[in-house]
Write the structure tokens for this entry.
Amino acid sequence: MSNIPGDLKFAKTHEWVRQEEDGTLTVGISDYAQGLLGDLVFVELAEMENEVKAGDDCSVVESVKAASDVYAPVSGEVIEVNEALSDTPEVVNTDPYGDGWLFKLRPVDDQEIADLMDAETYAEHVAAEE
Amino acid sequence: MPYIPHTERDIQEMLDAIGVASTEDLFDEIPANLMIDGLPGVPEGVNEMLLFQEMRKCAREDIGGLCFIGAGAYEHHIPAAVWDVATRGEFLTAYTPYQAEASQGTLQLIYEFQTMMASLMGLDVSNASLYDGSTALAEAILMAVRSQKKSKSKRILVPKTLHPTYRKVVETIVSYQGIILESVDFDKEKGILDPAILEQYAGEDITAMVLPQPNFFGNLEQVDALTDAAHKLNALVIGVVNPTAMALLKEPGSWGAEGADLACGEGQPLGIPLASGGPYFGFLCCKKSFVRQMPGRIIGRTEDTQGRQGFVLTLQAREQHIRRAKATSNICTNQGLAVTAATIYMSLLGQEGLRRVALASHQNLQQLLKLLAEVEGVSVKFSGPHFHETVITLPRSSTDVIQLMAEKGIQGGYDLSQAYPELGHSLLLCVTETKSTEDLVNYVECLRSIL
Amino acid sequence: MSNQSIPLIFEQSCPGRYASMQAPAVDENHCDIPQEFLRTTKATMAETSEMQVVRHYTQLSQRNFSIDTHFYPLGSCTMKYNPRGVQRISQLPGFVARHPLAPMIHSQGFLSCIYELQEILKEAVGMKGISLAPLAGAQGEFVGVSMIRSYHEARGDHERVEILVPDAAHGTNPASAIMCGYKVREIPTNAEGDVDFEALENALGPQTAGIMLTNPSTLGVFERQIKQIAEKVHEAGGLLYYDGANLNAILGRVRPGDMGFDVMHMNLHKTFATPHGGGGPGSGPVAVGERLVPYLPIPMVAKEGNQYRFLTEEDCPDTIGPVTTFVGNAGILLRAYLYARLLGREGMRRVSEFATLNANYLMVKLQEAGFELAFKNRRATHEFIITLQKQAKEKHVTAMDIAKRLLDYGCHAPTTYFPLLVPECFLIEPTETESKEDIEEFIDALIAIRQEIEENPELVTTAPHTLPVTRMDEVRAAKELDVCWSE
């Protein structure tokens, strides 16, 4: 069973979102998603200051046998990317909800955030995929 | 039955096991109205002996005497060992090394190829090869565009001193991806680019510049000044080079202050026969920072579970079989067999041997030019430094002269009248180490008799 | 095979040594090229004797599986016997030494072969025009889709921006369509392995430029609705592209042109038995129906009286242009021609007949032995799929593990994990040149491995055990990139 923290929101495409106190969002991929991919060997970071729409691909996580797009869970501007992953992509495997975060967004539409799944719904979503 | 081992008894037992009466029944899912009875337009089969006899005659028609044509494909001596070893069945009839454990031979060989190729270019990384020189350049341009995310213009400077077919192939391949190819003219006196020509682009967004060395005319471009000028525009520099020449001439990685960013070209001179144009191979090398945008296959060295050295296909996630629509390229095969031969060729010659091939070829051309200086009406078009190929001008139509020389058993050069009408009655003349003094004298006598 | 590492050629170097008799004499005091243009650095190249080089690469070759040494049922790759006679004839001096730009009077032999190959291939696939220029299947795809685009653009039909591709397609199909500036829309496959016709109908529209299909598909079955698909796509104004990867299955029986395709490539290194060379060269000629003839890439060979010549841009003003420096992979074209001549019209039909017989026999035998077929109600074409998900779920032994163990049994593994639609799959293509006994040995090997999974699964999950190396650390290869040796 993969780990699904209760305080996060999730997109169908397995990104998680944490709402920070300053109103920005931190985004990563779920424990389930990293498990499916296996050992990551490379992360193509999102482009800084890029305006993205919900569902746009903005980063790529790569294992030996697969490369997966990471989609913006909501619309907004990319304000920070996790540069450390350039050298240590494996952190996404070992700490997907902590140091393995991918990028931060300044969201533009609160409704999109509200529409994301809560942990319980996401757990059902994962169970259905398995 | 040619190459089919089945006996009548095998066939019957197999049909029985499947539970059908005849092999025709195995096609019963194909709509009957689509089936054909045969291929009347295909000739009857022949056996190997008869075909050998027929083809010996056929191939003899193409033995054309002395070849002084270059223009992108060069006749060099190929040591016997090269193809003897390269056509061993284990190299010849293996496929893409997807099962690394059963392909260490091919994989280690390609790793050695990558090492030699990258260092010959003075760059960090080489891929396992592309189709040919012109398509390697097209891929290099696409790669430069992907690498230069900050450059939105997708403008590529393409000099007119680049091989004319390369220019056309690149246009065919990249034109649907919003890339703008801007032609850069050359100095008509010198047959090279004037580095000052890049000043007109100051302040503009240029993605990359293509820089041939030697250029199509055999002339040496001022690669240091041009590289620096292109870098000043924040453009990437893509060298297009003759690999044999790089044992003698300054390699792309040392051009200007920072070196070219990518280098590509035709690998044929490295032990591949002329063979009517292929199979050859294209090579593509780059600085390390661009490796993830590299198209095609790349072999990496690693270890097995017992800590022994081993080799695998790596960075495969960029490739089409995984990344599909988002792959760096649609390329699937490389030119494995040609790379096998080139690797053996480079190992046999080493850097010193390759340098001597280059220098001997060049010295032979100098000797021929000296002899030609005494033929009235023939002159060397451009006076600057060149490498084993150069443009000569004639007192009459180069098309006619080449035709007449061919009838006398000499392939006199490449006719420039179509691609470069502005050069008048000119032909591109190439000499390699394969020509003796007697061959050179024959060339001169043949030309003199025609003029 | 030895299980000691073979040192790299550079590690066997001895400074100052080289195969001196292979290098020409030079006059070191005579180089007119100014110093600023000359190389001053050392390259990493071997310094070895001729015998060292021959021995090194011979030893490396012995670390390969190949058709000449092993059964090689690699699905979708058609690893059939590559006749030695073809190889030898292609090396005749007149063929090997001809410069690609040689005058026409020194080219008639080669050109006649190429011209005849054009005619033979057109007949074999039922098309009106052909260009042999594309250098590989993937380039053929690019060329084919470019021609589709040129066709629509010439008609002022600029709204067609989408290429349809079944989800089972080779990865090259979507990648090629993207290179031509198209959007790609995937069409699902139904449970029987055919294209989901309703989904296709819904996807068709004024935005459709064309569809790329492989038939038989990558699922190893013949697309039975092909006529209806062709009608629907044509009705919508789109064109049909045929990926010739699986042409071996139908050679001489049913032709892409008759199925309704407008353009196709063929893989001569598959169907026409040219050597795979450790990953190429391939060759991917494109053939077209009437509508696309004007757009074919140059050069092509024409026959005028009893003379042959190349067609150029002047002859073909609407060509998409050249896609290769000279004429394509000429030596591969020549080999394909020789192979076609040896087979003749009857031999070509026997290719599909025995490829299909071998595949169906292998399939039925594996099913009898209890292996699970991906499409059990279907005939095999020249290949078929088994799924090993039972072994994966119950014993945690994956298709990849079984593939690796097969190597110990002296069989190259089938294609694994492709097509992506079938979990834990093997795509198995025995080809027509394998005998009944070879096929039975492969069946026995699979049965034996299944027994090992029951008794000692670790033997399989840690395979191979008999090759020069065991499994590779691929994560390390990708993360600590070592792609060039240095001291």
